[in-house]
Amino acid sequence: MKALVCIPLLLETFVFVVQQQVDGGLNENEISRQISSEDGRQNPPQTDTLRAEASTDRQQYCDLGIPDIHAALRELTASVTEQKGHIRELTATVTEEKEKNRELTATVTEQKGHIRELTATVTEEKEKNRELTATVTEQNGNIRELTATVTEQNGNIRELREELNKKNEDREIAFSAGLMESGSGHIGPFTTEITLTYKKVFTNIGNAYNPITGVFTAPLKGAYMFRISVYGYAPYEATAVIVKNGEHVVIAHEYQDQHQLNSSNGVVLILEVGDVVCVRLWSNRRIYDSHNNHNTFSGFLLFPLR
């Protein structure tokens, strides 16, 4: 039982020494004083007899099987010193890690700033994309409208071309014809003027000339060129006249006592739609024709007029 009294005393002294060593260390004198102090606390003031008896008992029982406390404390002191070295190393490591953490925290803060900037940039770009999308949608609408307009205009152009082609077809007016379709012989003289019918048609674009009646009818208003040629033999005169709506315009005339007679003439006339032009042989005049087509009547549209 008395041995058990020494064990708590040693444990308490050990804890105190360790604490002091952690805080700054103890020497052996301080350790001895601490032990004496602990003895005082464990054994309050008693009579001299009681103290002497307790001291004798404690010494007897502590010496029974407990090692030298000074040796143990020296070992503890060495262990505590070693632990303090480890603690300093750990403290330095912790300090280093704290510095690294501060650097990482600063880096994270900086990266958060970059992320905020990037987020703002992305938001701005998204807004621009929305605006561009709206613009593209609007432009697509405009393109559809323009496409519809172009399609309509193409239709109008086709109609205008067809109308223009039709008008151009109407403007393609030209004819040329010879007097006799076949054979040869004299025509005339007659006591009155007659309308010559040029039956041998060389060209009749627009079909404005009628080879049965010998009359050209203007299909549209414009300037027309007409020309005639006459051929005959003496002693008769050879005279033919271009007539517009019954009025004489120009003549082709030739006379001599003998041999062949040959003459021609032409004129530009302004005709309205429906005006007629023909060639008449004067009374008492005679002309001659053959397969050589000496006598001809020709005309064509120079240009239309409004």
From TrEMBL:
UniProt keywords, alphabetically: Coiled coil, Secreted, Signal
The chain positions of domain C1q read: 168-306
Enumerate the InterPro entries for this protein: C1q_dom (IPR001073), Cerebellin_Synaptic_Org (IPR050822), Tumour_necrosis_fac-like_dom (IPR008983)
**Signal peptide bounds:** 1-19
Q: Indicate where this protein resides in the cell.
A: Secreted
Entry's Gene Ontology cellular component terms: extracellular region
Sections of the chain in a coiled coil: 87-177
Asked whether the UniProt record includes Ribosomal protein among its keywords, one would answer no
Q: Does the keyword Secreted apply?
A: yes
Q: What is its main location?
A: secreted
Name this polypeptide is given: Complement C1q-like protein 2
Where does this protein come from, organism-wise? Anabarilius grahami
